[in-house]
Structure formats: structure tokens, C-alpha cells
Write a structure and sequence with these properties.
heterodimer, A: mainly alpha, Ferritin, two-stranded antiparallel sheet, 60% helix, B: alpha+beta, Ubiquitin-like (UB roll), 2 domains, 3-stranded antiparallel sheet, 3 strands, 38% helix, elongated
Chain lengths: 263, 102
């Protein structure tokens, strides 16, 4: 592995780890707020799976660089996740009695579906990586992702099939697709990764495959893939919005009380 | 929404044991929810979800616990006979042995 490729691989795995951590954290916010109790469990456990995948990826970075990654100790602008994933969807009930509705369930489940379809293609492209630890980790992650796709595709069908929910699905698809370009923003040095077989596909390849997969799954319901905007870019370089700062603040608040504490 | 009863099989070929229930709009989602509640921590080999409405219950004590003495219908009632037969067999064997000697 050339030094340039190694540096790019570090950025690539960091982006993947942060994607998983951030959407996983957002998913777990649905505990107690999903449309039914069973879904609280299902969606939160999908979230916890994603956090687990993030841990696997941070461990890979340790193998690659020899440095431990403690996400709680990283400043907010060092995170490399796509901006779409940081947005608040679950309603929030403040102790003061204030209630923030946020984007709601349709947004959360559609975002998770769009992300899982993307993640499946990303993982597929890493399954034959020339760096064996990555290929091995991906194999385990893919088996857990099977449930995510099964579940989110089932929800897509249910939302699309009912007159009461179809408008919410359409709105959520539009809102998510506006920012979806951020998922396909390449890390610096992507060409080196592909040239050395560390990663099997470019971000552009993934995007083309993802667009055709999504369009194909919407077709039976006579929906078309909304236009993918040019918003939502910058996450892979540490640019994020105010909702990320809020989330980062919450995720790291206990750690920052006493960074020297032993856990 | 309907209640689905969940049955879990721990090993291939083993019995399906009632594990609990889930509320879901259809069998497909019921199975997905059952997987979360009844297989994530203790791995199951297979799960069944059955709409509660499809279960016909029988709970009449006159049918299930008849008041009469029905012990004679149970295998264990005949344990005394088994014992008797064993004793007779032994005696016969001893008698036969004695006959051969004579």
C-alpha cells in the first residue's frame, strides 16, 4: 500500500465510521417515539447495529494507523459523515415541557432506507478489498445489514401503498434526495484507493448504481427518483450544520465533564 | 393492527415454544418484530408468528380435567402389573431351571 493510498484509506474508513455512528445515534432517538412499541425496538436496534459498525470501523483505523480513535474526544469539525445523516428526525420532549416535532417518522425511515441501499453498495464494493482486515470486517457487517434492508424496504412498501401515508413518503423522499449528494462526496485521494484495489468502486459508480436501484424500487408505486440536488455537500471535509453541533454536544457531554476519567 | 403470538424453536427439529407476542399490522412485519424481541439476545433457529385470532382455545375443565377416576387409563396405573409380571417371570425361570435339573 502506497503512503498516499494509506492516507486516503484512513479518510475513507473514517467517513464510513462517522456515517454509521451519526445515523445510528439519530435512530436510537426513536426509542419511545416510533409509531408503535415494536418499532421502537426494531428501529433503535438498527441504530445500535450501526453504532456497532462504527466501532468496527474505528478498530480498523487502529489497525491501519496504530492510533486509537475515541469519537468522544474528537472536535465537531473532525467528523466526516454526510450532512443528511446528522439531521434531527425524532420528536424531542424537553424536561421544560417544550416539544420539538422535528422531521418525523417518514423522514427517518426513508433516510434509513436510502442510506441502507447506499451502504449495501458501498460494502459490496469493499468486499474484495486488497486490504484483508477491511474485507473481513465488511463480511460481518453485511450480514447484519440484511435485516436493515428487509425492514426499511417493507416500510417503503407500506408507506407507498396507503393513500394516507403516500404524500408523507413523497415529501420525505424529496427532502432526503435534496441532500443525498453528500453520501457520494469522494474523500481526497479516492483515485489512489481504486487504483490499488483497496476500494472497488468510485463514488460516481456507487451513485449511478444507487440511483438505478432506488428508481427501480420506486417504479412499482409509480414514483420517480426526485432530483438529487447539490446541497448537503462538505461533510466529508468536516463541514456540518447547526443540528450536528447540537448532536455532537449531546453525544460528548458526559465525556467532556471529565476527559481524564477512566470508564 | 393485530396481536401475533410468537413461537420459537431453539434447535433444528425441536419443539416450538410460545415465546410471547407482538403487535403488528401484518404477518411480514410481525415476523420482523418477533425477530427483534425474541431472537436478538437468545438466538432462535426458527420463529413462527400466528395471528391470535387464528388460535382456537379450549379451556373447559369438564373436558380437560374430568372429575371421574380415570387412573386406569394412564400407563402408570399399570406399573403394579408390570411389577407382578416381572416377579412371575423370575419365578417361572427358577421353576424351569429346577425342571431341567430333575
Amino acid at each position: 500500500m502506497s503512503p498516499e493510498a494509506r492516507a486516503a484509506l484512513e479518510r475513507y474508513i473514517m467517513a464510513m465510521a462517522d456515517d454509521e455512528l451519526v445515523i445510528g445515534y439519530r435512530d436510537t432517538e426513536w426509542t419511545g417515539a416510533a409509531p408503535l412499541l415494536e418499532e421502537d425496538l426494531a428501529f433503535s436496534s438498527i441504530g445500535v447495529d450501526e453504532v456497532g459498525h462504527a466501532r468496527t470501523c474505528y478498530a480498523l483505523l487502529h489497525d491501519l494507523t496504530g492510533q486509537m480513535i475515541d469519537y468522544r474526544a474528537r472536535p465537531a469539525d473532525k467528523f466526516r459523515h454526510a450532512q443528511l445523516l446528522e439531521l434531527a428526525a425524532a420528536p424531542r420532549y424537553e424536561p421544560s415541557g417544550e416539544h420539538q416535532a422535528n422531521r418525523g417518522w417518514a423522514f427517518a425511515i426513508v433516510r434509513q432506507w436510502l442510506y441502507d441501499e447506499f451502504d449495501a453498495l458501498r460494502l459490496e464494493s469493499l468486499a474484495g478489498s486488497t486490504w484483508p482486515p477491511l474485507a473481513q470486517a465488511v463480511d460481518k457487517i453485511r450480514r447484519e445489514e440484511k435485516y436493515h434492508l428487509l425492514h426499511t424496504r417493507t416500510w417503503l412498501e407500506r408507506l407507498a401503498d396507503r393513500r394516507a401515508t403516500a404524500p408523507r413518503l413523497v415529501a420525505a423522499l424529496r427532502d432526503c434526495c435534496t441532500l443525498a449528494a453528500g453520501l457520494f462526496e469522494p474523500v481526497d485521494g479516492e483515485a489512489d484507493l481504486v487504483a490499488e484495489g483497496l476500494v472497488g468502486a468510485t463514488s460516481d459508480d456507487l451513485r449511478a448504481r444507487w440511483e438505478s436501484e432506488i428508481a427501480g424500487r420506486l417504479l412499482p408505486f409509480a414514483y420517480t427518483l426526485p432530483r438529487i440536488g447539490r446541497d448537503g455537500l462538505g461533510g466529508r471535509h468536516g463541514e456540518h450544520g447547526p443540528e450536528w453541533i447540537q448532536l455532537w454536544d449531546e453525544m460528548t457531554s458526559v465525556y467532556r465533564l471529565d476527559p481524564a476519567a477512566t470508564w | 393492527m393485530a396481536v401475533f403470538e410468537v413461537f420459537s424453536q431453539q434447535d433444528p427439529g425441536g419443539p416450538f415454544v410460545h415465546a410471547g407476542n407482538v403487535v403488528a399490522p401484518d404477518p411480514e412485519l410481525a415476523a420482523q418484530y418477533a425477530r427483534n424481541s425474541f431472537s436478538r439476545r437468545e438466538d432462535a433457529f426458527r420463529l413462527w408468528v400466528v395471528p391470535r385470532a387464528a388460535i382456537h382455545e379450549e379451556a373447559d375443565p369438564d373436558l380437560l380435567r374430568p372429575p371421574g377416576d380415570h387412573r386406569y387409563r394412564l400407563g402408570r396405573y399399570y406399573r403394579a402389573n408390570v411389577e407382578k409380571r416381572r416377579r412371575l417371570k423370575t419365578r417361572f425361570a427358577e421353576g424351569a431351571g429346577a425342571g431341567a435339573e430333575a
